[in-house]
């Protein structure tokens, strides 16, 4: 920034009332300094068109959106969310005006507005004062509740140690890593009124009065009446307790130490006998919460799903079912992973020679401790008890096998959804059929014409001559299709899964991905199908 630019930009800042411009110019830094209400600020003009000018202050006291000071004592003032505007579309002069307007708005907040802004960045201030601990604190809730007594569990992964606070009844797949250690009781409390609750500011930690203001405030009901009844009526005889609060969607934890183990009502023990409060970082980690945070509807959380086949498409579908919140997944596949599977499968070359189903079981269970994937290293057969499942997804590549499954499911899996997913050999098209086995369409309908005669799959778009095969020794072939086809097939399979639990009429439907478009067809039933129709 040269002197001419400095003068032009400074004049914009100086045009705002009450701003006191500092006469300081240094070409290599591109900084304009000014004061407002006695506070010193520094604006760094960005050359990058995609960025807003940065504002820093050397003000030492905490204030909303004043971030942690660097080694020079400067604190970045956070003025914009990264989604508020598209920066490159705004001329630099207007960016400077926007920054000053935002800063003045921030500096003129009333006390209620200041408290409201602090809530947006509550964890920043909380985490600053948290003591280091050898254990990582995690919270696992089974449902959204206002209060609950929690079970503490310790786990060890090498040098990594976890302390989980869990709702009753939660199961984990890593119990072999559990270690037996004693810990005090813990209670979860949701704060329902957080007006004027401030985080620990200027390094000052919460004290007993702060906690009593939350759990026993006679003027403001900050927790629900039933939660208050629990802490006021429960007799407590431990020397320690961990209180976990939810405040404005954030989670924080306090370890309280009492004078002794004497028995008293919990609220009185907190009021009269607390000698130490230790602030802890804690993260909510249950799968329902994490899934909901990314926009999933948690529809699959309580569903038991059977996946038959975990080759290329099956491996993609298995992972995405878990990503969508399915925690009870059973997989059947008798095939082993081969090097040539590598770039159209979720597994990597390390797993060459291992059974696909068992390795996917291992990989998916590693994703989250609540995921419960069970794998059987052989092909599905008709003797398997399928009544316990809510949905069956078949991703096997053989139409003959799908035919056999269709007959079995029509007899044994009545009025429950079955999804048959397949890819066409042209490497461009894919399909996902959902049938309910109640005389309203099935997989066999795809191969039945209007006269009740067998035909080629009437939903396939490609010509047989367009199919690309790779020979795989005597009698064995692979269809050559690319990764984009797998992604499109996974997409429509997941859409079919969601619709299977959303529809009320239970008529079969089919999704197609063809010509880079998703098409849904509800006219599946073949009137003369020998499997699902009596005609």
Write the topology of this structure.
Layout: H1 3-14, E1 19-21, E2 31-36, E3 39-44, E4 54-57, E5 66-69, E6 75-77, H2 92-107, H3 111-120, H4 122-129, E7 135-140, E8 147-157, E9 160-166, E10 178-179, E11 185-190, H5 208-215, H6 225-233, E12 235-236, E13 240-247, E14 250-258, E15 264-265, H7 266-273, E16 274-284, H8 287-293, E17 304-308, H9 312-323, E18 328-332, H10 356-367, E19 372-376, E20 391-394, H11 399-412, E21 418-423, E22 430-435, E23 469-471, E24 477-479, H12 483-500, E25 509-514, E26 517-521
Parallel strand pairs: 7-9, 7-16, 11-13, 17-18, 17-20, 18-19, 20-21
Antiparallel strand pairs: 1-2, 2-3, 3-4, 4-6, 5-6, 8-9, 8-10, 8-11, 12-15, 13-14, 14-16, 21-22, 22-25, 23-24, 25-26
Helix pairs in contact: 9-12
Number of strands: 26
* Mean model confidence by pLDDT: 90
Discrete helix count: 12
CATH fold group of the largest domain: Rossmann fold
Which secondary-structure class do the elements indicate?
alpha+beta
If you compute it from the alpha carbons, what radius of gyration comes out, rounded to the nearest whole angstrom? Answer: 31 Å
The shape, in one word, is globular
Q: Give me the CATH architecture of the largest domain, please.
A: 3-Layer(aba) Sandwich
Indicate the CATH class of the largest domain. Alpha Beta
Helix content: 25-40%
Which percent range describes the beta-strand content?
Answer: 25-35%
The major sheet is characterized as: 8 strands, mixed
So, the CATH homologous superfamily of the largest domain? NAD(P)-binding Rossmann-like Domain
